[in-house]
Amino acid sequence: MATAIQTLQELVSREAPGSPVAMYLTGSYCDGGLRPESDLDILLITRAPLQTGERRVLVEHLLRCSGRRATLQPGRPIELISLVQDDIKPWRYPAMRDFLYGEWRRADYEAGVLPRRETDPNLPVLITSARQHSSVLMGPPLVELTDPVPREHLTQSMFDALPSLLDGLVGDERNVLLTLARILFSLRTGLIAPKDVAAADICSSLASAHADIVDLAARAYRGEARDDWTELHSEAAATATALTDRIHAFRA
Fold first, then answer.
1. 72: which DSSP letter?
2. Fewer beta carbons below 10 Å: N end or C end of the chain?
3. pLDDT at residue 160 in the model
4. Which DSSP string corresponds to 127-151?
5. pLDDT digits over 97-123, tens only?
6. Rounded CA gap, 239 and 179, in Å?
7. DSSP-based three-state secondary structure for 46
8. Cβ atoms of residues 98 and 17 within 8 Å
9. How far is CA 97 from CA 48, 83, 224, 237, in A?
10. Number of C-alpha atoms within 13 angstroms, CB side, residue 90?
11. What angle do CA 138, 3, 176 make, to 5 degrees?
12. Which one, of 184, 175, 201, lies nearest residue 251 by Cα?
């Protein structure tokens, strides 16, 4: 993991994509510790949007170094998000993401598709969490470069993220179910917790069949169980529907 971070830092220092301002470790690494299947989440903030060549350089580097299918040295999967400083301060919603690399999109990257600028409803959660829990790799503390996300924008972003999240259920059951659990937890408490912590909190209020499915996802996330969803499609879908119905109840 240290090698992956170091080589990415060296690349950013050498190539200076977008004229970097800062880089941070975020996510599970800084909030409760990495789980066996956790991504290594890295946030890059730049002065300017990345150019096509800069996007290609980052993608080619990450294809070599990220995840089990890395072509150079397999390791922990890396999720790299790059934001332009002027897109996030002063804060406004919907927020713009300049670049995203994640292993779930590897096939697209291998086919030559480059990450593009687009709005991202997940950014309010990412920035809120990272302002509380992040480790500086380069630059000033994140709170100096970002504004607090208003509660109403954080809430709206969770509703806005639902359609694309649910579209990805098949094949990504664990992550989708745990993300739904975290959304429900956040809407109820106003807090952002690690996925398995949120899952444990809401399980006590779910029907037993749905609680069992969420608990399986949480235990697999911690490396305590193997979650084979090939014969649990209907159970996962029913649990996702139950969680989504409870999330929508918070719109009232």
1. S
2. C
3. 96
4. HHHHHHS-EEEESS-GGGT-PPPPH
5. 999 999 989 999 999 999 999 999 999
6. 12
7. strand
8. no
9. 12, 5, 34, 29
10. 0
11. 80
12. 184
